[in-house]
């Protein structure tokens, strides 16, 4: 159950690209986090408006539905960079050296193929609702206040394109580790044991209580 | 090849990818996509010149799923609950609730341990994070228990077990996920979690008191707090109670109309915790950290959700869940025995897999089978196998599987809570914690048995909500 993992850095081109992409990924994830915060503000505003001023927020549900893809998908590459997508590491955690890097490499190559296909599929989904000639460039709109839907549809292929870039870097990272037989390669999340994860968890919370 | 056979091959392939360590979300999405390609191609007689068509249609079908499935108001509960959790660390709630619990409950035998259980239950509920709660309370509560002569293993066991109370008491993201996957009322599931969660905490407390009364040296009581001190400890811990109460009242108000929707309840809860965090001096950089962590966990969960929903889209074409449900209801064995076997299978699976991944991967196939065992989704209580209507059975089963998933956090060999407690305390080995957690392990098994035998414990509150 890998929740999050360590990513090593050095001065190589790969590591510099990794950190460069991380800036973009962090920016995307932050947009996602800010959208969650706005969701909270919007709901409090809606409840407050309805309960105390008898004026509910118009289009509350439409706004939430438009915000959800930003919240749920924009940070996908950031989570991949941090090794935050869960997996079962009982077998892969036992592997070492080249066998481990080969398994990791195979896994990220498959994920890249999947994400490229889904980027195309998600783009097609966006393309069907986007029309330069239509009002607000939109062929479809939300039910209540008529928000155009294409911006939230566009988020998906954009986020998927960024994770595809991340996966290319990880293929490079694992491929390099496999060829050179590295112990602790840079720019890829390393498998941690349950005890290491626990320590990381504890350190992360240090000073918060 | 007929669709069910394709369904079996693809599902088997997905399990293999998961076991080999592929990220769960992507393994599910890939299985779904390959399955869709295969099934569309099979419809065209597997002719080579039709493969391109099948590929395009499958990719376009799968490509719609992430956007169309996540754009839902109900799903917006998940990020708000997660935000509550991350803000809770900055709101100074951990020490406040432990202090309040200590002043109110420490006078009973094993009092400090009982206080720890109630404090961890409260904080775990609000933070929604079992493992993180265990990590935090290992640092706050264990030193205090050791100071007054508690057995080291016992103190560690209390904290590791207390952390598991996160997923039932509202707000619970995992119950929201369950509700969405099985298409049941989110509000009722959140309500249903409250009594079993509180019940588990009370069972732990009774167990501790019993142990402390039999072995006098295990956990001496702590006395001497005045009523003034007790009441003085309450305001700082109030946001925890407020969040739980608000979410319940937004779903079901025993004195009148519900206050709003669960989503609004979650948001108001988050706002209260946010105000508390700001009041306690949370800085902008800390807010940024909390938002990034919220984004990371939210995206992790949603990626599994849409990944699994691509797989579910394929399953719909393959009709595997229908075939599995038909097979399981044709068995001669009593439905209750089958249900218990399913729960035991979850206990085993949960030892190796994260709860959310486990539920999302298995429910699309297992849930229809359980409903079929009870007599179908729309069966009345009188005609059902488990003595409850279809929707009630869905709620009951949800609470049982979530409790199983939590139970797995303290079962050897990789009960993560035990590793975390041992990780935080260098003086404790993992074996020490597993030994200390043993009584709670037994208590949880008894609790699950009671929830199975007396479904009313789960269903009473949601049945009041109509």
**What's the assembly state of these chains?**
heterodimer
Can you tell me the residue ranges of chain B where pLDDT is under 50 for at least 5 consecutive residues?
none
- SSE arrangement of chain B, N to C: HHHHHHHHHHHHHHHHHHHHH
Helical segment count of chain B:
21
- Write the H/E string of chain A, N to C: EHHHHHEH
Category from helices, strands and their pairing of chain A = mainly alpha
Structure summary, number of beta strands of chain A: 2
Largest sheet data of chain B: none
How helix-rich are the residues of chain B, as a percent range?
over 70%
Family (chain A): Belongs to the TRAP transporter small permease family.
Protein name (chain A): TRAP transporter small permease protein
Subunit structure (chain A): The complex comprises the extracytoplasmic solute receptor protein and the two transmembrane proteins.
Pfam families (chain A): DctQ (PF04290)
Structure at a glance:
The complex is a heterodimer of chains A (209) and B (466). By secondary structure, chain A is an all-alpha fold.
């Amino acid at each position: 159950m890998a929740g999050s993992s360590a990513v090593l850095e050095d001065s190589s081109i790969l590591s510099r690209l990794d950190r460069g992409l991380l800036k973009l990924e962090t920016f995307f994830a932050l947009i996602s986090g800010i959208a969650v915060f706005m969701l909270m503000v919007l709901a409090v505003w809606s409840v407050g408006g309805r309960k105390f001023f008898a004026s509910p927020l118009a289009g509350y549900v439409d706004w939430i539905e438009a915000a959800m893809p930003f919240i749920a998908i924009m940070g996908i590459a950031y989570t991949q960079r941090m090794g935050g997508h869960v997996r079962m590491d009982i077998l892969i955690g036992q592997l070492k050296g080249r066998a481990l890097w080969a398994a990791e490499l195979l896994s990220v190559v498959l994920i890249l193929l999947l994400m490229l296909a889904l980027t195309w599929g998600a783009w097609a989904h966006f393309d069907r609702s986007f029309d330069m000639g239509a009002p607000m460039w939109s062929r479809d709109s939300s039910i209540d206040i008529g928000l155009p839907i294409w911006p939230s549809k566009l988020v998906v292929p954009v986020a998927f394109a960024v994770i595809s870039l991340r996966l290319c870097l990880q293929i490079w990272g694992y491929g390099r580790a496999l060829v050179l037989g590295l112990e602790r390669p840079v720019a890829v999340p390393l498998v941690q044991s349950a005890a290491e994860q626990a320590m990381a968890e504890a350190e992360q919370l240090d000073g918060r209580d | 090849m007929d669709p069910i056979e394709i369904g079996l091959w693809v599902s088997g392939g997905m399990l293999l990818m998961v076991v080999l360590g592929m990220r769960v979300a992507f393994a599910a999405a890939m299985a779904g996509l390959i399955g869709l390609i295969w099934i569309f191609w099979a419809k065209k007689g597997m002719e080579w010149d039709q493969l391109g068509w099948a590929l395009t249609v499958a990719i376009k079908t799968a490509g719609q799923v992430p956007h169309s499935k996540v754009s839902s108001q109900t799903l917006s509960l998940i990020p708000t609950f997660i935000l509550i959790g991350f803000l809770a660390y900055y709101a100074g709630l951990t020490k406040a609730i432990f202090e309040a619990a200590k002043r109110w409950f420490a006078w009973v035998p094993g009092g400090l341990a009982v206080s720890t259980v109630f404090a961890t239950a409260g904080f775990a509920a609000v933070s929604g994070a079992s493992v993180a709660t265990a990590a935090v309370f290992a640092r706050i509560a264990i030193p205090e228990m050791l100071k007054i002569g508690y057995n080291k293993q016992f103190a560690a066991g209390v904290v590791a077990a207390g952390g598991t109370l996160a997923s039932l008491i509202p707000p619970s993201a995992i119950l929201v996920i369950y509700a969405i996957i099985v298409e049941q009322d989110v509000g009722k599931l959140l309500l249903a979690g409250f009594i079993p969660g509180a019940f588990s905490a009370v069972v732990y407390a009774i167990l501790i008191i019993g142990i402390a009364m039999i072995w006098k040296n295990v956990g001496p009581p702590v006395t001497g707090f005045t009523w003034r001190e007790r009441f003085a400890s309450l305001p700082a811990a109030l946001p925890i109670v407020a969040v739980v109460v608000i979410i319940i009242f937004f779903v079901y108000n025993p004195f009148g109309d519900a206050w709003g929707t669960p989503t609004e309840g979650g948001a108001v809860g988050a706002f209260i915790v946010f105000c508390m965090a700001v009041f306690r001096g949370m800085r902008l950089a800390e807010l940024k950290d909390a938002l990034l962590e919220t984004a990371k966990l939210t995206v992790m969960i949603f990626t599994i959700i849409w990944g699994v929903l691509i797989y579910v889209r394929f399953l719909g074409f393959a009709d595997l869940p229908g075939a599995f449900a038909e097979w399981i209801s044709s068995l001669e064995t009593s439905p209750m025995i089958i249900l218990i076997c399913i729960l035991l299978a979850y206990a085993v699976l949960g030892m190796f897999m994260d709860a959310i991944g486990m539920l999302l991967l298995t429910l699309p196939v297992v849930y229809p089978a359980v409903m079929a065992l009870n007599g179908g989704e729309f069966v009345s209580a009188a005609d059902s196998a488990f003595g409850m209507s279809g929707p009630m059975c869905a709620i009951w089963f949800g609470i049982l599987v979530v409790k199983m998933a939590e139970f797995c956090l303290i079962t050897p060999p990789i009960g993560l809570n035990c590793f975390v407690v041992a990780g935080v305390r260098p003086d404790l080995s993992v074996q020490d914690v597993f030994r200390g957690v043993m009584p709670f392990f037994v208590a949880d098994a008894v609790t699950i048995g009671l929830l199975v035998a007396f479904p009313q414990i789960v269903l009473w509150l949601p049945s009041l909500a109509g």
